[in-house]
Amino acid sequence: MLLKRFITLCSLALALPLAAPAQELSRFSPQQDASFRTNDQFDAALWSLARQSAQSALNGPLYLDAAWLDTRRNTEYEKAVSGLKTTSYGALDSAVALLQQLNPQVLRDRLSLAIARYYFLQGKLAAAIPYYQTSGIANLSNTEIADAKFELAYCYFNNHQFGPADTLLSIMKEVPGKYYSPGNYYYGLLAYTKGEYAAALKSFARIRDEKIYRPVVPYYMAEIYYFKGERDTALAEALSLLQPGVPSYYENELHLLAAQCLFEAGRFGDALPYFEYYYNHSEKLRKEDLYEMGYAYYRVDEWTNAIAKFKPLSIAKDSLGQAAMYLLGDCYLKTNDKTGARNAFGLCAEMPYNPGQREAALLLHAKLCYETGFPDEAMRSLRSLMQDYPGSDYLPAARLLQSQLYLETNNYKDAYQALARFPTNDAGYGSIFQRAAYGYGLQKLQSGQLDEADKLLSESLSQQSAPAYTAATHFWKAEIAYRQSRYDSAVYFDQTFLRAASSPLAQQVSSTATRAHAASTLGYALMQLKNYREAQKAFATAKQEGNNTTATNASLREADAYFMQKDFAHAAPIYTSLASGTGTDAEYARLQSAIIAGLRGDNTEKLKLLSNIMSVTPPSAYAAEARYEMGLTQITTGRYDEAVATLSLLTTDKKEPEFAPKALLKIGSLQQQLNKDEQALESFRKLIRDFPSAPERSDALAACKRIFVERNQPDAYITLLKEFNLPLASDQEMDTAFYNAAELQYASMNWAPAAAAFRRYLQQFPAGMKALKARYYLANSLYNSKSYAVARQAYDTLLQAGWNAFSEESARRAAELALADTAWSDANRYYGLLAEHAETDESRSNAFAGLMRTASRMHDEAAAVRNSDSLLTCAQVAPGLRDEATLIILRQRLLQGDSSRADTLLPSLVKSDNAAVAAEAGYRWAQALFAACKLKESEKEASANIKRSSGYEWWLVKTYLLLGDISIAKKDYFNARATFQSVVRNTKLPELRAYAEQRLQELKNLDHSKLSNE
User: Fold this and answer.
1) C-alpha–C-alpha distance, residues 291 and 310, integer Å
2) Contact 585, 573 (CB under 8 A)
3) Cα–Cα distance measured from residue 298 to residue 304, given in angstroms and rounded to the nearest whole number
4) Quick count: other Cβ atoms within 10 Å of Cβ 214?
5) What's the burial of 212, exposed, middle or buried (CB within 10 Å: 0-12/13-18/19+)?
6) How many beta carbons lie within 10 A of that of residue 727, not counting itself?
7) Residue 74 CB contacts under 8 Å (≥ 6 apart), including other chains
8) Which of 125, 559, 698, 844: disulfide with 838, CB 3.0–4.6 Å?
9) Contact in structure between 289 and 255 (CB atoms under 8 Å)
């Protein structure tokens, strides 16, 4: 400050002659005293006092002479600097404002430096930089220059302006003094950051033993050795720094450095303690470090620890995350956790970064999904593998697994086609192909495509890897041959089936393929071949092999075989023994016994037996036939009036309408015999009028014609024809010709030509003798040619003509087609007609089942429950259908808050043969267990339901979501996340996808991971 004071004094001295006389300054004026006092206090670093004195000096009168102005500028400068030093309010703004107008340069440079240091001390390093830059060095002491340069370098460094910082520090690190060590430290850091490791090591080596840098610098040096590839030196440095009593700020990082050196040297076991220290003392970890820890545990076979480290990496969507998931899957396999392995490989397969890992993961994921009962996920992975890696070595195994999955879901068509397209010699191919061809063949059989079914079953026999399927195939080929009237082939395949030792195994494949059933079919085929002796033996075998029901039927057929051989001596006892029972079989036996009695000439016994059949309650299924047979017996014994009375009851029997035209024809003939021609004509007219399609109609017309001819009344015959709108004889012949041509096409299953022929017939003869039957066959032809919309119209037209012999089947088919069109209201109407006219328990059950399902589809739950109740009252209801009705009733109760029977009904419904029922019941049962906090049982049931629900997406996805919720309840966040991600990725159901997305968001708050780069 001596220099400044000297300048001030000189200025004052030079200015004295120019001062105004009235304003002549005194050496002792208050302003001058305040100015000198400010200067002294400023030099003594008494900043607060200097600021106050400067303010006093500046508060006095303003003089215009140059000396005073120079003094005032110096005082303003000292006030500004003092204000900055004391961080007074407004000091910074005042200093910045003064800087713009301050002269001379010496004061401006020094004030700029003061502002820079103010910002520096306030930690506003970026703001300090421009003021350091403008302060210059010409008016600074060496000490001030050194301080300013280091401080500026520090500002550059922390503001990431490493170039300017490097320039300054490269000088400061070589200058002895207080900034020698800091200069080397920061220069070393800069060189370290830039990868100039030699320069960094040189600077760090200068200061590594200094107390302030000893906890920090050796770590940097160890890291530099690591980065330079000198792993052994880096490890030695790290280990030396980790000795007890050696202070280090980077304790955690040194453990990590030691772990990484050991890891890269393949010393995985040695690395693990250092990894664990770092893990336990860090709040967050880099994903790379977590991966290395997991891999180290993996390499020393510590699967559980490896799993714990790999699991958080499930959210890393990069090559490291993909590799971690692949290894995690392997760890889960090593611990026999197939669920975890499935999810890990599934996550790996979603990522594209390592194609080889993805390719292998797709197959492993598919296999594990198959083994754990997730067929839909397995199929998706296999399809991705085949599509994305067409040249993969895994394709043969993938195709076999795909076919197995198709078989699991009864998709025999795709299983067969996949295997037929790519035959291989791989183990297991033969047995899978055999099953696929067999299953596909049976599906063709069920749809009525007998030729294709037979061909596929023959292909199944080409493998014969599974004896049970071989036996079942022989059984069904016999059934097809019989249906196609190839009786010789039916005999061959049934005999082959019965001779095979493996035939009992066939029931494992098809419950229908029993020895009793095969022997029965063999008997029927032999009956068709008129080989009654061998047929009798076959039926005897069926009787021996079957249960009570099948044995009774086989006994009847055995008796029929004896009957056809006219061996009444053997037939009669069998019929007699069966006639003592109840039911339709017993009634048939009594009827046959009556016929045998008649053949033996014992008409009394015959009539007695027939009377018994006719008198039972409820009426016998054979009552009409017995009545007709009684009428014939009365005719043969000349009791015409009794015969007319007996047969007359058949003419109004609506349950057995096929006997009415026969009875009317017989009655008319008897009335002719009794010379009652008018009554005979009335009987014939009734037959002609009421039964236009009956074969007996032409005989009735011929009889009427004879009567009118005998009476010499040909005009009356013509009138009769006109009355019933019947064509002349030549037209009748054309009627028959048109119809027979159409029926021939129908019998040959040429559906399109048959439909055209029946249309032509109906156009020519809309009221023809076979018009009703022709309309029915027309509808069937359209149905079989897959013209479903037109077929339904045809069935509907037939139903509008009133209930007839073809109405039941027409209503059933129309309902089926309406269901396919989702025309629930129409289907409900058709099922209503079936229910109204159903005469058998089977028909009623089918009708109520249809009404139940359509009501559910129309969301009429009350009607659905009502029809379910009606269905359950039927005696003959298939188990799967009964389960469906039970579930509908139970579902309604659950909605009403009544769960009283859920615990007993749901477990039984889960086992239902009705797959749709089992899928829903399985979900509801698993959910009930979850609600009861039975997590283990709930998870087990849900996993089983995944396989059970294949093909029923709603319940399948609902069950997946439940599995995710179970995993959350178990705090197994990895499997929960994998499950919800799978749903989001694959489901097309918006409501369920939204729930999965919501749960994934919630998982972020639940799963507290140490991973730093989430």
Assistant:
1) 6
2) no
3) 9
4) 16
5) exposed
6) 16
7) 4, 7, 8, 35, 39, 107
8) 844
9) no
DSSP string covering 700-733, please? HHHHHHHHHHHTT-HHHHHHHHHHTT---HHHHH
Give me 835's structure tokens. Answer: 């229910």
In terms of Cβ atoms closer than 10 Å to its own Cβ (0-12, 13-18, 19+), residue 860 is middle
Other CB atoms within 10 A of residue 211 CB: 7
Strand, helix or coil for residue 1011: strand
Helical packing angle, 879-895 and 861-872, nearest 10°: 140
Per-residue tokens: 45 = 């670093």
For residue 717 the two structure tokens come to: 């015959």
The residues with which 1011 forms a beta bridge, in sequence order, are 285
CB 742 within 8 A of CB 760: yes
Q: Which structure tokens are listed for 424?
A: 């291989």
Nearest in space to 221 (alpha carbons), one of 260, 240, 212: 240
- Ramachandran angles phi, psi of 21, nearest 5°: -60, -40
Instruction: Output the pTM of the full model.
Output: 0.61
Angle between helices 319-334 and 355-372 (to 10 degrees): 40
Q: Using alpha carbons only, what angle is made at residue 557 by residues 556 and 559, rounded to the nearest 5 degrees? A: 65
Helices H / strands E in the chain, number of each: 55, 0
Using the structure block, give the residue that is written with the tokens 């068509």.
413
Question: Per-residue b/e over 784-817, b at no fewer than 16 CB within 10 Å?
Answer: bbebbeebbebbbebbeeeebebbbebbbbbbbb
DSSP for 173-223, written as a single string: TTS-STTHHHHHHHHHHHHHHHT-HHHHHHHHHHHTTSTTTTTTHHHHHHH
**What are the φ and ψ backbone dihedral angles of 547, each rounded to 5 degrees?**
-85, -175
- Distance, in Å, from the CA atom of 720 to the CA atom of 333, rounded to the nearest integer, reads 89
CA angle 192, 196, 199 (to 5 degrees): 90
Residue 168 identity? L
Q: What angle do CA 536, 540, 543 make, to 5 degrees?
A: 140
* Helical ranges in 286-354 per DSSP H: 287-299, 303-310, 319-334, 338-350
Q: pLDDT for 207-265, tens place per residue?
A: 888 888 888 888 888 889 888 899 999 899 888 888 887 767 788 888 999 999 999 99
CA dist 921 and 910 (Å) reads 5
Query: Contact, 168 vs 152, CB < 8 A?
Result: yes
Distance, in Å, from the CA atom of 923 to the CA atom of 966, rounded to the nearest integer, reads 13
Q: What is the amino acid identity at position 671? A: Q
Torsions phi, psi for 1011 (to 5 deg): -65, 125
DSSP state at residue 504: G
3-state secondary structure of 912: coil
Instruction: Give the pLDDT confidence of 128-148 residue by residue, as tens digits.
Output: 889 888 887 777 777 788 788
Q: Say if residues 132 and 116 touch (Cβ distance below 8 Å).
A: yes
Residue identified by tokens 């019965």 is 498
Judge whether 768 and 760 are in contact, CB under 8 Å. Answer: no
Identify each DSSP E strand in 384-432 by its residue range: none
In angstroms, the CA 164 to CA 151 distance is: 12
3-class secondary structure, 300: coil
Q: What is the percent of the chain where pLDDT is above 70?
A: 93
d(CA 335, CA 537): 61
Q: How far apart are CA 450 and CA 484, in angstroms?
A: 8
Burial class (CB in 10 A: 0-12, 13-18, 19+), 117: buried
CA pair distance 787, 209, nearest whole angstrom: 96
**Could you read off the pLDDT of 758-816 as tens digits, one per residue?**
898 888 778 877 888 888 999 999 988 888 899 999 999 888 888 888 888 888 889 88
Beta bridge partners of 285: 1011
* Pick from 194, 271, 213: nearest CA to 238: 271
How many residues in the chain? 1014
